[in-house]
Amino acid sequence: MAQQLEIEYKTLLNQADYQKVFEYYQLQDQSFQQQTNYYFDTSDQQLQKKRWGLRIRQYQNYGELTLKCPTTTIGLLEITDSLSLQETKQLIEEKRIKLGGEVAKRLTENGIDPQEVRIIAELTTKRYEFPIAVGLLALDHSWYNGREDYELELEVSDETQGKIDFSQLLEMLKIPYQKAENKILRAMNR
Question: What are residue 39's phi and psi, to 5 degrees?
């Protein structure tokens, strides 16, 4: 189990700007990681009402169960339980989350029955992720509900400086800012 504070800035991209970032950082097609997110909520949307996100993310060789909760200050608190690939596939097939981990414990502590959550959306992303001088940069191409989109995301450790750095990055790349909702909201609303 891991807990961390996530502070990130992101923008949606059009296909041309996605390609511009790809070429600027000289990314190679084989350097991406594919991940599929399975998002969960209760039938009465208890997590959405709290502005929480709950997902199982499946990678090629393992998985993660992550709960994201807003903090009272900055960013999101991420609580993550590691999963084996076999466990990940079984949970997805059974359309449920792991009941014995820290994520389920946090849900229970907040009056949400982990056995009541169900898959509400699915999104697959081809992600290029790499460190740059100001933080961790991710370039994403995602598919969901017959749609696709592109996104640039910068994860930082300082909210104020991160906002400045992200603005300067977009300016340097000559990319306009386009508000990007969280992936869970995009996958659910389209």
Answer: -95, 145
- CB distance 149 to 142 below 8 Å: yes
pLDDT tens profile 26-61: 998 778 999 999 999 999 999 999 999 999 999 999
Sign of CA dihedral 9, 14, 16, 22: positive
Report whether pLDDT(183) > 70. Answer: yes
**Which is nearest to 69 in space by CA: 148, 165, 156, 184?**
184
On whether the CB atoms of residues 11 and 180 are closer than 8 A, the answer is yes
Q: What is the CA radius of gyration of the chain?
A: 17
pTM of the model: 0.91
